[in-house]
Amino acid sequence: MPQRLLGLPLVLPALAVIAFLFILPLILSAVGAFQVEGAFGWGNFTKAFDLYSKDIVFTVVIITLSTVLIGIASIAIGGYLTLGEHPVAVAILRWLYRWPMFIPFIVVGQILRTFLAKNGMMNNAFINLGLLTPIDAQSFLDWRGIVIAFVWKQTPFVALLVAGAMASVNRDTIEAARNLGASRLRVLIEILVPQVAMTLTVGLILSFVTMMSVLSVPLMINAQTPTMITADIAFRVNSYGDYGVANALGIISLVLASSVAWIYLRASLKERA
Amino acid sequence: MTASVMAASRNPLAALWWVPRGVVFGLMAFFIFGPLFNMLLWTVAEKWYFPYSLPLEYGFGSWAKVFAPRGGAVESLTNSLVVALLTVVVSLALAIPAGYALARLKLPLRGLILLAFLIPQAFPNLTVYVNVARIFYEIGLNGTIPGVVLVHVSHGLVYAVWIATAAFSAIDVELEQAARNIGAGAMRTFLDVTLPLAAPGLMASAIFVFLESLDEFTGSYFVGAPDVNMLPLLLYTAGAGGNYQIASITALLLLVPSILFMLIVERFLKADVLSRVGH
């Protein structure tokens, strides 16, 4: 066997798992999306848009808003970790921000459901502090709850990547700008963020795709309409055995996710050119 | 520390900065630990209803209920652990040869192969699991432990392969060459030199895969339920039924390994391995 082919049999079993358990079902779902009672057609997509166009818009808005908030929060955290001048404050933040990272989505859904409810701990704490009257207390278990859950869970991951990238930015430039009188906020926005833009984008795209496929958070925090596409897919399959519309919705979410990835690819190609 | 104390003594106003810092950190801590503390309260709440902001009675009654023979937790916990361990074994059995080949041997299209393992993480996977469940149903794998393990392996493989590749490429090639020079065969060198040196990295990838499997909900929901009960499914059904005590205890069981891992991950995942992940 030629030397460069020696490695292939070692890699093939692992690749076969991906091919049979992921790529094949992905192709099946694309085929199934266009199959209406044995014939090919757009029927599933018309039905999906008729029934769920509101949910599709809702999903895009929720995930876009969450992505923006995650981006802002992780820039703020990474920026403070890099530019913060008080070592104790930096250490406190470094210890604090990571906690939600490894908490599973299903647990996030459960604990935020009890925390954000109308009589949940958040409202209770505000009422006991006198910041809120019991009559004004409202439940956050709607679109806001989903956004809060996504930001809560995904920010540490993106912040970790961004802080790592910021730490490797050349300190001399930062010191020079500071010595010339630039404020820390200005250094963050005009020097640090542009230099870590690529890492930030990668982290945000990974988060975007993750949020596109999370089923447990919408099911647990907001299962009424309008809800997210993932909850609709589960409902179509479990209640009607309707794989056609479920697959069409799956393809729609796939197109949404890949369009984001495409924007990234174009940006990175432009940067290299 | 000393520098900051000096700065503070130079400028007494600097201490005032702790007011905004305290407010921001306090709010962050409230939003991060509040939900977790709320969950802990639920696990020991015997009686807790509106409008009381704290439980009226505390006790471990729900724990007894959850771990009673018919409570379902013991079965779910066992299933979850068995599936997670099998997922680790299968993933590592696939990832160790693959990682070694990707790190050490000349492979055509190496970059593409590495990228292929990322596919299950980079596409919304819900629709894929729906179709996997259909395929498994036809071949009798749906609702079985091997079926769930296979789904978890496809999802966890990216950690296993990427970290294993990084762990193998962080090892000094000269150590292997030295073993070969004094007469050890390729297999012997791999088992006695390469594998022990890569062990911490492989351990880290095993933990990642274990947690990924333990916490996985969507795949278990479509492929496992209702025949194979797992902890995340128990959490979901208990929560959907409004039984917050049982849901919170299950959540705690899922949380402990994740938090433990966060505290020890840096011991296994050294910077030299970490910097090579994905390369």
TrEMBL record, chain A:
Pfam families: BPD_transp_1 (PF00528). Residues 56-264 form the ABC transmembrane type-1 domain. Keywords: Cell membrane, Membrane, Transmembrane, Transmembrane helix, Transport. GO terms for biological process: transmembrane transport. It is found in: Cell membrane. The keyword Transmembrane helix applies. Its main location: membrane. InterPro entries: MetI-like (IPR000515), MetI-like_sf (IPR035906). The chain crosses the membrane at residues 56-83, 95-116, 146-167, 187-209, 245-265. It comes from the Bacteria. PROSITE patterns: ABC_TM1. It is a multi-pass membrane protein. CDD domains: TM_PBP2 (cd06261). One of its GO terms (cellular component) is plasma membrane. Belongs to the binding-protein-dependent transport system permease family. CysTW subfamily. This is ABC-type spermidine/putrescine transport system, permease component I.
UniProtKB/TrEMBL annotation, chain B:
One of its GO terms (biological process) is transmembrane transport. It is found in: Cell inner membrane; Cell membrane. Gene3D superfamilies: MetI-like (1.10.3720.10). Its main location: membrane. InterPro entries: MetI-like (IPR000515), MetI-like_sf (IPR035906). PROSITE patterns: ABC_TM1. Keywords: Cell inner membrane, Cell membrane, Membrane, Transmembrane, Transmembrane helix, Transport. It is a multi-pass membrane protein. The keyword Cell membrane applies. GO terms for cellular component: plasma membrane. The chain crosses the membrane at residues 23-45, 81-100, 112-137, 149-168, 189-211, 244-265. Residues 77-265 form the ABC transmembrane type-1 domain. Belongs to the binding-protein-dependent transport system permease family. This is ABC-type spermidine/putrescine transport system, permease component II. It comes from Xaviernesmea oryzae.
